[in-house]
Write a sequence for this structure.
């Protein structure tokens, strides 16, 4: 059994039209899905002593994710307001709450217990990627960050570099992946929404089409794809099998609301009706919970 720890962001995604909040955040999502895919999984991060933090802790516990290095402190848990317009997901407002943290020496030493550590660019932990790479293999989600210097600086530490490439041309994709591989990344995963995904190493590129579904919600599909890819590569599965299983898993995530499920009524100390009204007004219409098609 491979062992994976995710270190970084968490959030509750607040669906305004449903008046529901769901545990989420790139690193939390990867930790949960890694556990679902058979890995021994752990999550390191910070949550507040509020209803949102309780929801996150309950979800992690239910998913058998180790929480020995999860800090539970006074202050608000991070949240993001999510709406939909004409089938498209919209991120409206967010507050990082207490989620940003500085890893301690004990935190970094803890990483040595795992085959890989996953970090996302939204976690504010770039300054510790090099130190983490001396403890374990690094999986890093660049999301939409594509600056050449940034890719080279972080990519040189990575076992798996993941990047969102929806809408990019083949030339743009080749430039990004070439830079990451040249920097030292062993594998590069590019997810392209309905165009599928491509997994690269120094000698080959493996492409796989998306599994299109009548989706309920695409939130978390990309994180699911990353988690399944990381587990598969660490287990020594073939790239073709890894991509096929990851595409199926990402499509399945689109069949329910939230990145990992676990809905609860919105209950955030900083989230007032004034904030919700302002978010809705800024987008010119009441934000509906319209279904979306295809996986992201």
């Amino acid at each position: 059994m491979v062992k994976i720890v995710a270190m970084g962001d968490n959030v509750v995604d607040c669906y305004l039209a449903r008046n529901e909040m769901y545990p989420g955040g790139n690193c939390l999502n990867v930790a949960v899905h890694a556990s679902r895919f058979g890995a021994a999984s752990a999550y390191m991060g910070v949550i507040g002593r509020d209803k949102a933090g309780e929801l996150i802790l309950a979800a992690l516990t239910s998913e058998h994710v180790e929480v020995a290095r999860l800090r539970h402190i006074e202050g608000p848990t991070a949240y993001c307001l999510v709406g939909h317009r004409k089938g498209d997901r919209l991120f409206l407002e967010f507050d990082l709450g207490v989620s940003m943290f500085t890893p301690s020496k004990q935190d970094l030493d803890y990483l040595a217990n795992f085959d890989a550590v996953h970090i996302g660019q939204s976690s504010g932990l770039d300054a510790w990627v090099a130190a983490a790479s001396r403890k374990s293999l690094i999986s890093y989600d660049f999301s939409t960050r594509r600056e050449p210097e940034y890719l080279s600086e972080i990519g040189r530490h990575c076992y798996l570099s993941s990047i969102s490439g929806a809408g990019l041309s083949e030339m743009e994709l080749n430039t990004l992946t070439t830079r990451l591989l040249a920097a030292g990344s062993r594998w590069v995963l590019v997810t392209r929404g309905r165009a599928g995904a491509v997994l690269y190493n120094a000698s080959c590129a493996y492409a796989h089409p998306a599994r299109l579904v009548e989706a309920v919600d695409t939130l978390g599909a990309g994180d699911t794809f990353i988690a399944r890819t990381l587990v598969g590569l660490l287990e020594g599965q073939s790239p073709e099998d890894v991509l096929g299983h990851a595409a199926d898993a990402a499509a399945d995530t689109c069949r329910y609301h939230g990145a990992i499920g676990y809905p609860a009524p919105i209950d955030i100390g900083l989230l007032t009706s004034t904030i919700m009204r302002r978010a809705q007004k800024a987008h010119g219409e009441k934000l509906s919970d319209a279904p979306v098609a295809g996986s992201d």
Notes: Residues 283-296 have pLDDT under 50 and may be disordered. Residues 231 and 288 are 35 Å apart (CA to CA). Residues 239-253 form the longest helix (15 residues). The chain has one domain: 3-282.
